[in-house]
Amino acid sequence: MAAVSGLLHEYGANIAQSDQYSTSIAGGTFLMRVVFLLPDLEQRRAAFEADFQARIAQQYGMEWSLHDTAVPKRAAILVSREDHCLLDLLWRGRRGELGLDVGLVASNHTDLADDVAGFGVPFEHVPVTKDTKPQSEARLLELLHGYDVVILARYMQILSGDFLQQLGVPVINIHHSFLPAFVGAQPYERARVRGVKLVGATAHYVTEELDAGPIIEQDVARVSHNDDVVALKAVGRDIERTVLARAVIWHGEDRVIVHDGTTVVL
Amino acid sequence: MAAVSGLLHEYGANIAQSDQYSTSIAGGTFLMRVVFLLPDLEQRRAAFEADFQARIAQQYGMEWSLHDTAVPKRAAILVSREDHCLLDLLWRGRRGELGLDVGLVASNHTDLADDVAGFGVPFEHVPVTKDTKPQSEARLLELLHGYDVVILARYMQILSGDFLQQLGVPVINIHHSFLPAFVGAQPYERARVRGVKLVGATAHYVTEELDAGPIIEQDVARVSHNDDVVALKAVGRDIERTVLARAVIWHGEDRVIVHDGTTVVL
Amino acid sequence: MAAVSGLLHEYGANIAQSDQYSTSIAGGTFLMRVVFLLPDLEQRRAAFEADFQARIAQQYGMEWSLHDTAVPKRAAILVSREDHCLLDLLWRGRRGELGLDVGLVASNHTDLADDVAGFGVPFEHVPVTKDTKPQSEARLLELLHGYDVVILARYMQILSGDFLQQLGVPVINIHHSFLPAFVGAQPYERARVRGVKLVGATAHYVTEELDAGPIIEQDVARVSHNDDVVALKAVGRDIERTVLARAVIWHGEDRVIVHDGTTVVL
Amino acid sequence: MAAVSGLLHEYGANIAQSDQYSTSIAGGTFLMRVVFLLPDLEQRRAAFEADFQARIAQQYGMEWSLHDTAVPKRAAILVSREDHCLLDLLWRGRRGELGLDVGLVASNHTDLADDVAGFGVPFEHVPVTKDTKPQSEARLLELLHGYDVVILARYMQILSGDFLQQLGVPVINIHHSFLPAFVGAQPYERARVRGVKLVGATAHYVTEELDAGPIIEQDVARVSHNDDVVALKAVGRDIERTVLARAVIWHGEDRVIVHDGTTVVL
Q1: Percent of chain C, pLDDT > 90?
Q2: If exposure means fewest CB atoms within 10 Å of the residue's CB, which of B265, C146, C193, D74 is most exposed?
Q3: A21 neighbourhood in chain B, CB within 8 Å
């Protein structure tokens, strides 16, 4: 911390925000996120990065990266038929709340094409059947090339490990339950059968194992015996869109660090 | 509903509260809880019950029971070493918030004997080891005889199916996770490993299958990467005691009806 | 209750839901909402209403009304420039979640005209200035004629008592604070100055006195010193739209009864 | 930040936690809380403090203080007749959750003397009448001498500005409403009349102006028309004790910084 803030001070940077977390008091991994104002960053960036690498990162064995907050990340959204998460993201994007640029929406259905058009975002239809999954994933890889993050806004297809590896950027999914409860399909149906008194949603990074990736954000809402599956889904939609939006916003602000299968949100 | 309220009207009863739930709009089970004021209930009870049975219950194939709200249920509490749920229940009992009489606390440890004494409630020490479990359960059955409900306020022993059957009254347990997530032992440790962003607690009726009984109440609280297992447990204690207290109060008010492995809380 | 359910039984109606509330155990006002299935309601409605009035309502001095749930209420929305509440209502309406028909959006600005057009709902621009307020209100009265309820989805004009009286139907407003805290203008600015740790929103029926009408629904979200006014507003938007939607849905289902300056939500 | 972490580094301190907040990006007040491990602190404390003052605090015009986390603050509690906040604090203290030592409970009533005795904490009865308020406050000042913080755990007397000034240490109060709603007496009664859908509690530092001091923590719980004043108070008690406990714990950890009539909780 002294080294990083010292170098920033030396460069005349003004620290706007600084958050740290140590995975263990003694000998743990030290995680740090610093937001700073550095005049003329563009011209001085190369020198600063070289200095940072040579004088600090090497000494402390750091993994690090530098992002210009004026350059929002580029996001693509995959969606199937449910509109609530998609529209919420597009609205927030239009309002400037999202902090990243949505450059593409791709779907295995055409239902939401018109909605997306209204926001001036390109829409691509990439159908998937059991037999055409490899071709679909290949097509998606072409389309998703160049994006910094992919958001699954209720995309009801499982992405193969191979696809995730070739994609090479983080994928954020919204799962419609409070994980690890109700991993897999039909969580609301199973929540109803189990008689839970709260339903939830979980935004997580996608890994090859289904619904097992690092959790970014979760929330719940109260339900009762009066709520049948249709009602649970209606309650759940509000939680899903809010939880996904928070996770996406935090990811866009580089607040989320994955460590040991979990996330640290700084 | 017409039949029940009609008979009550005929008897001059004043309905204070009435709640209904139908498990299905057509052909489901109809559940109903009516609170009414009936002057001279004691003297007229036998006649009313006979009438109710003959004129209504038989016709509609009802299971029913009548409880005098002036006579609180008698409860016994089982506890191990954690004090938070126990003390909260005793404290609420003293304040008159609980709506049932706690007549006994039994524990497999002696740690909490003094606390219980301060509330003027009898305390029984019933140690359990792997080898003495049958004797312990036999002793508990003697002690618990005559109670209307048994509350497991962090009792860290699994009760056998045989014990439950012989006991013959409802047993309410507080599980320290948001079921069905983290069934079984060490839920906070597993919550930490999985990196959940909320921890919860679940009050449920005990059945032979571990942590699988009908859920009465649940709640959660927000946690973060900053919260180690010790911190998760501290947050959890507040949720556990509150959730258990709500479940016990509702049970004492005859609000909780078990149906098809779940509860309807009227 | 016996009388109402008895008559329904006599007509062969099947009670789907029944909720009651008595403002006082002895001598209070008894409020009741019954949802029932009555085959051939249309043909039998006149007879049923006459019977209900003659045999029940007169005897008990009831105020009552009968609504066909298959005929949704007609709603008009007034809005200024903020889109979040409006879009949320339109979106829920499209999904069939709202339970009432939005037939008109009127605004004192034109900013949201395109958004409204996308949902196929007529949009009317009714500008207001200090000098033209009477004419504006007159124009609104023309436009709002025939609607069952008017929703102020962040409409930043105070409606005159005269207007409300002539309008003659309920008006639901969303106020961007947890009333009665921060009545009036700029609640988020004042919340920031006061240093509150939660911000909220309140949906209420509009009365002549500013922000003093019967509260239908409220909710809050956690904020901190890190949240400046811009951040408070962003957090608040999510609460506002959710709280307003709940209030509108409940109103559409005839769940909300005004009594003595407050609401009973059955 | 660079200066502080640099000096700590120089002394071989290990930073365990560091939180910062700037009241304004440019030219605001910079607030910082650093928790560090410094071996042999006791022997080196004088030197470290002198260094810190001379090399850092003077240069940046800092107000600062250094607390040994191994030495908990000493707290005194004032209470009237309600037991819930008091008992919750004493329990948490016994469990080691509170992080400060409760050395005294003083009350204007004797109702809670036995409860306090059970925890081995001295209890002082300091009656107050309208006529004896000055003498009571004088007696309290004697008793409270030497404590680091005073906690009003539902103490239903207004402390004079003179008293607060002479006391000279922070006083934390729990107010039984979501401030600034329902400042002053009988908040639950007024909440019922206003028909709010949530009740809350607010922990704040006491200033001369009633219920206007800097807010440390707030929370709310959902209520409905079914909850009369007695029920609102029961719901409120759970919120009050939790909110007060959080505020006290944070204060004990030196997390709460008062700035401009509000608090920053680091």
Answers
A1: 93
A2: C146
A3: 225-226
Query: What confidence category does residue B203 fall into, taking pLDDT thresholds of 50, 70 and 90?
Result: very high
pLDDT on residue D265: 97
Active site residues of B: 211
In this predicted model, what pLDDT tens digit does every residue of A122-131 receive, in sequence order?
Answer: 999 999 999 9
Contacts with A181 from chain B: Cβ below 8 Å: 178-181
* Whole-number Cα distances in Å, C110 to B72, C75, C128, D194: 63, 20, 12, 36
pLDDT at B23: 87
CB pair distance less than 8 Å for A215 and B194: yes
Burial of A29 (0-12, 13-18, 19+ CB in 10 A): middle
How far, in Å, CA of A217 to CA of A122, rounded? 28
**Residue C213 phi/psi, 5° resolution?**
-70, 170
Distance CA D37, CA D18 (A): 12
Amino acid B28: pLDDT: 85
CA distance D130 to C72: 61
Number of Cβ within 10 Å of residue A24's Cβ equals 9
Give the Cα separation of C90 and C111 in Å (integer). 16
Cα–Cα distances (Å) from C216 to A195, A239, D66, D179, in that order, read 28, 21, 50, 20
Whole-complex ipTM: 0.94
Q: How far apart are CA D66 and CA D34, in angstroms?
A: 10
- CB contact, 8 Å: D119 with chain B? no
A14–chain B nearest CA distance, Å: 26
B9 touches C at CB < 8 Å: yes
A194:B262 CB<8 A: yes
Domains with residue ranges and CATH for chain B = 2-60 (no CATH), 73-265 (3.40.50.170)
Helix residue ranges, H only, chain A: 2-10, 41-52, 58-60, 84-95, 113-117, 133-144, 161-167, 187-194, 229-252
C95 and A87 within 8 Å at the Cβ level: the answer is no
Three-state DSSP at B118 gives helix
Q: pLDDT per residue over B43-77, tens digit each?
A: 999 999 999 999 999 999 999 999 999 999 999 99
Catalytic residue among A83, A88, A211, A227: A211
Residues of A whose CB is below 8 A from C232: none
| Cβ-Cβ contacts under 8 Å, A97 against chain C | 234
Determine the Cα–Cα distance for residues C126 and C112; give it in Å rounded to an integer: 13
- Alpha carbon dihedral C97, C100, C102, C103, in 10-degree steps, equals 150
Average pLDDT over residues C182-187: 94
The model's pLDDT over A145-176, given as tens digits with 9 standing for 90+, comes to 999 999 999 999 999 999 999 999 999 999 99
Q: Is C97 on the interface with A (CB under 8 A)?
A: yes
The Cα A239–Cα A216 span in angstroms is: 14
| pTM of the full structure | 0.96
CB contact under 8 A, D217 and C197: yes
Confidence band for B27, pLDDT divided at 50, 70 and 90: confident
Residue A45, min C-alpha distance to chain B (Å): 32
Judged against a pLDDT cut of 90, whether residue D24 lies above it is answered with no
d(CA A182, CA A195): 12
pLDDT at residue B212 tops 80: yes
Residue D19: closest CA among chain C residues belongs to which residue? C226
Of B83, B118, B242, the CB nearest to D118: B118
16-45 of B, contacting C, C-beta below 8 A: 16-20, 22, 25-26, 37
